[in-house]
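User: Here's a chain of 128 residues. Predict its fold as tokens.
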Amino acid sequence: MMKTRNGILTGLIAFCAACDTTHLGFAVDITPGRAKAMVAAVVSLISLIIGGFAFARSAGRIGTGKGQAAAIVALMLGLIGMVLSVMHLAGSTGGFGTGGGRAGAIVGLVLGLIGMNLGGLALARSRR
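Assistant: Prediction complete.
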């Protein structure tokens, strides 16, 4: 398990290093609005991933457990991601392309909705 975590962490660090665009002559500037939207999108993406695993586990495809705890976690993270996205959208004044993170918040909202649906389906399937 520890080797898998180290491999994932190493891969993420390598990906972030590859995304560095300062050698191309311009730097990527993450504005506070984009950072808030990224947090909402990442929380929603984690919800989607956990919900997918819980849904697969509830169908009996992965492991033998029912996956109720994972489904509940997916529901809660999806809700948190959606609330963060809606709060950011309600408070942002700029349009698309201004650095306000409006597009990222919309992506986070959609990912959170999908994650909540997967978690709910997994929870319903595991209670049968």
